[in-house]
Amino acid sequence: MPREITSFSNDTVKLLRSLRDKKARREEGLFLAEGLRILTEARDSGRLPEIIAYSDKGTLHPLAAEIVAATEAAGGDVIVTSPDILSKMSGKDNPQAILGAYRQPDTSLAALDRSAAPLWLVAQSLRDPGNIGTILRTGDAAGAGGLILLDDCVDPYSVEAVRASMGAIFTQSVAAASWDAFLPWLRGGAGQLVGTSLNTDYDYLAPAYEQPCFVLIGNESQGLPADYEAACDLLVKMPMLGRADSLNAAAAAAVMAYAVRASWRNR
Amino acid sequence: MPREITSFSNDTVKLLRSLRDKKARREEGLFLAEGLRILTEARDSGRLPEIIAYSDKGTLHPLAAEIVAATEAAGGDVIVTSPDILSKMSGKDNPQAILGAYRQPDTSLAALDRSAAPLWLVAQSLRDPGNIGTILRTGDAAGAGGLILLDDCVDPYSVEAVRASMGAIFTQSVAAASWDAFLPWLRGGAGQLVGTSLNTDYDYLAPAYEQPCFVLIGNESQGLPADYEAACDLLVKMPMLGRADSLNAAAAAAVMAYAVRASWRNR
Q1: Which has the least CB within 10 A, A212, B64, B113, B195?
Q2: pTM of the model
Q3: Does A36 touch chain B (CB under 8 A)?
């Protein structure tokens, strides 16, 4: 049976609310996902929330009712509450009618199975949670196995990143590591490391990329450090026809991911 | 000579501050751009601000000093002020050390010269200012002439869109129109209208796109309306290998823009 919560000062309300904060997410090992679309994506990927909360106003959508029932059957905490309290949990004025708190998976490189997909995206020190979510979503669409976050990236489990991923946070593997840990891991198995750079004339459409291909995307304002570029198996250049010589990091990741896939069409 | 402003209640402070609001931007015909990188992009595109404000702390960067001098020579209003007042103008806790208010250009379709570029991006009812800015930036990199905003798009001159454009708001032409005005304008000259859709099997890499090519991007959550798709000369599909069958609108625009350019490589 769902628990009804009517008090803003309830401990579970406070717990869910706290998950907007990175420190609390790390301590609890949980993260927040909001809205039926993302919760359905999670369920379809075999993931159920540990806590689920929905509004006591209106009828529950049949898909939402299914997820609530499955969460309850799995021993999860099911909460029915007011839109105002949902709003407090999500920190938004117009909250989604349902949200869930999910266990964060293991993000060690050791947990990553590189043979699971021919394409992997790797991002270095990305600072914008929207970019991380968008890159996860692109990875899902382009058939990547997941996203490896190097060095000082923002948290992929932030509310903003989860939202921008449109559920790809559940379909893509996520790993986090320093460059110094990543490079030996990469070289311990098959894999071509491809960086995009302005310091080469080698066109991004020229190579027949190897599998698995690891596409390395640099920080939003600095691009890739020189020694990271030097460690790549291949540096390629996307044409930059404008004045600014740059693309948004998530846009560059999308162009590269689809170019790599395109190079495999006639294999 | 620069005017020194020390009062938060100064009229120019209030004016600049008001430009965070769409209604004020429309009434004043101005918009705000912040930071030396974007102001330099503007200057290099032949655009100077009508009002320029910079911090009285520290030495002015030589590039900034050049832009300030050029603005003054052109009869612009030059303001030196405190970081706190700059912060109030920009609405940010850590404001850039320089900002400018620029005249909004004519965004009518009649002002657009389609022969100026082989590629144009067209977006329908985009709701996210970051997406609009990112698409402008992608257009700059991919050699597009500009961005045509259809129907109910958010304002391309918002602070968020200008920031995400990284200066491409000054290098790309921008037009805004309803679909009902756009279609006759398009058909009044040369141009292939290409939509991306899940309702076709025609692969996005198959065509040799015509010039000028108008790439039509749908709203973030709905995609393109059926009658817009029906009016396209060509519908193409990008492979969607994941569960979600969707890409972020700005990511999709980037993949399509580069695919269209790639189809012209061997002409």
Answers
A1: B113
A2: 0.95
A3: no
